[in-house]
Amino acid sequence: MRIIPSIRSLLFTVVVLAISTASFAQVGISITIGPPALPVYEQPLCPAEGYIWTPGYWAYDDDDYYWVPGTWVLAPEIGFLWTPGYWAWVDESFVFYEGYWGPRVGFYGGIVYGFGYFGVGYEGGRWENGQFYYNRSVNNVNVTNIRNVYNTTVINNTTTVNRVSYNGGPGGTNARPTPVEEAAVHERHIPPVAVQTQHAQAARANPQQRASVNHGKPAVAATPKPGALRDRAAVPAKAAGAAYNPPANRTASRPRANPSAPSRESNVPRPSTAFHPNDLPPRERPAPPNTGNPKLDQKYQQQQEKLYAKQEQERQKLQQEQEQDHQRMAQQTADEARNQQLEQQHQRQTQQLEQRHVQQQQQLQERQQRGNPKPPK
Fold first, then answer.
1. Which of 54, 122, 158, 172 has a CB 3.0–4.6 Å from the CB of 105, allowing a cystine?
2. CB 190: neighbour CB atoms within 10 A?
3. Domain boundaries, the chain
């Protein structure tokens, strides 16, 4: 697909609104080009039973689009399916409708994400008697580990259709929701689970995921599990869906902060959920203190660096311990149930570690603000 030239001459105002349980208010942004086309990539192997494919998408932050990789996510409830998010042109502005979990797949803009999401519904699998069965014709599944499979050929034109990533507007899809899809919007939903939020945060923190850097061909297009951008099984894009050149005045349009949204200027990272320490997004070093007293600033900076180094060592230690757990499981040829239990245990350990680190940094900052240089234990 080629990008329609007229798109570049339009001033797009992106306003992400709280429209339903499937979308939440974030920021208002003015940009000069719509989201890039969907990149071409392969699907990683499904990690275990109960995981459902969630396709990748372009998100927006800090004057740039960035690619959130497709990934396998453990369904939060038996019987629930994933409705992907999508961009839509509404009232002369782009609106992003966030994805959600629910008993039926709703409208997702007619966007052909592939791997079972061909613009309407989901052809990648179905729930039967409390178990999820995978359609091998569109999913990468190892039948040795996952036996709940079937084969149904899906007729689609994914090799010839354009890879446009938005609905409506110049060059967008012209799909409209069916009565069944409209009804699905009003059913009980679960928003993206914690690991999906962390997954998006990891993508945002990776410069290689930015469209201005990768020109529509992200370095990590898909991952085997949420947040695992550095996993060996992570998949790079094979090609961009279309030529992409970021606008020259991209830095001229700064986001208008929503007062109700958390500040991004804080030096304290937000707690996140990940399976292993290596899945956590890279940590930012604390900003140098500025009290006006050079000696005090130097002392506070040394405290911050000491805490940072200690926490990095704890991350590495936990990662090594969890890798040893995996090696023991492999030697014992553990079944899938035991492997899943181990993954859940690792996830809890990683979350607790990150939360403890966040709390330590908050305590240190509070003590420094009060003029007490004593570091937290």
1. 122
2. 14
3. 5-252, 277-369
d(C-alpha 163, C-alpha 67), whole Å:
14
| CA gap 281, 198 in Å, rounded | 8
- Compute the distance between CA of residue 114 and CA of residue 182 in angstroms, rounded to an integer: 22
Q: What are phi and psi of 133, to 5 degrees?
A: -105, 135
How many alpha carbons fall within 13 Å on the CB side of residue 269?
Answer: 24
Query: Rounded to 5 degrees, what are φ and ψ at 71?
Result: -160, 160
Give yes or no for a contact between 165 and 40, defined as CB atoms under 8 angstroms apart. no
3-state SS of 135-173? ECCCCCCCCCCCCCEECCCCCCCCCCCCCCCEECCCCCE
More confident residue, 351 or 75: 75
Taking the CA atoms of the chain, what radius of gyration do you get in angstroms?
A: 22
Q: What is the tens place of the pLDDT at every residue in 86-133?
A: 998 877 777 888 999 999 999 999 999 999 999 999 999 999 999 999
Q: Is the dihedral of CA 319, 321, 322, 324 positive or negative?
A: positive
Tell me, what DSSP letter sits at residue 277?
G
| DSSP state string for 77-110 | STT-EEE--EEEEETTEEEEE--EEESS----TT
Q: Using an 8 Å Cβ cutoff, are 125 and 137 in contact?
A: no
Rounded Cα gap, residues 109 and 1, in angstroms: 18
For residues 122 and 81, is the Cβ–Cβ distance under 8 A? yes
pLDDT in tens, 153-200: 876 544 445 789 999 888 889 999 998 898 888 888 899 998 999 999
Per the CB < 8 A criterion, the answer to whether 103 and 25 are in contact is no
Q: Which of 29-38, 79-88, 128-137, 171-180 has the lowest mean pLDDT?
A: 29-38
